[in-house]
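Session log. Operator J.P. requested a structure for one protein chain; no other inputs attached. Running the standard single-chain path with token output.
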Amino acid sequence: MPELPEVEALAHHLREHAVGRRVHRVDIASPQVLKTFTPPWTDLQGREVTGAGRFGKHLDLDCDGLHLVVHLARAGWLRWSGTTAAAPPRPGRGPLALRVHLGPPGEGPGFDLTEAGTKKGLAAWVVRDPAEVPGIARLGPDALSVTRARLEDLFAGRSERLKTALTDQALLAGIGNAYSDEVMHVARLSPYATAGRLPAEALDRLHEAITTVLTDAVARSVGQSAATLKGEKRSGLRVHGRTGLPCPVCGDAVREVSFADRAFQYCATCQTGGRPLADRRLSRLLK
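Structure written below.
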């Protein structure tokens, strides 16, 4: 799933390559991707792209005051092309959901929004104010800008596990499954730690890890083409997606806890005092 660093890099790419161009045509290949009907998506046509930004994990393309806001969900992606296909796509065929032509179709550049797999979550909104998007309206403070004091306030009294708190977008915006694993590993904290019971020293480490991990990931990602961003993300991860491989800090094997539709990875030596975590469904540490 694209998270804060990748979405920031995509926004940067659009600022570099899309701003100043005009939307010539928008093709809808998957009607269910559009979550708004007023204003109609056809109102984007003819407008100049004046900006591109990010709200948490939402990508925002500003077309002269009308915004195309996108959430890429788990398997969505933005594919930039120097020349878009002139023929309109067939609805419901393949991974293509939406295409934006930023030049004459068949001649100019543009981008596709695509989604792999059968479970669809990619969503797009056409709004006059990004705050009209429900997911943006609910966002907590951006993870890259949160201060140590603000983090302590956010976690005060929270009873959920740290893994859950870090990925709750209404609490802290931008961190997903992968970077939460990375942050907790760098901070040497258990995913099962109670968010509201972290001592001051642990909160210090957590805040520093959030800032360091995300800043480094943004620095690696910005300037990459959209086509290489996924590979860049994978290459920079220390524990996430590396089950069975040695921890880069201590050499212990990276372990995994699996859920019905996702998993997280951690190092027992670095994060849990050497104790392997039980499957979350057991709701306890192995003794």
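Operator note: The domain at 148-282 is CATH 1.10.8.50 (Helicase, Ruva Protein; domain 3).
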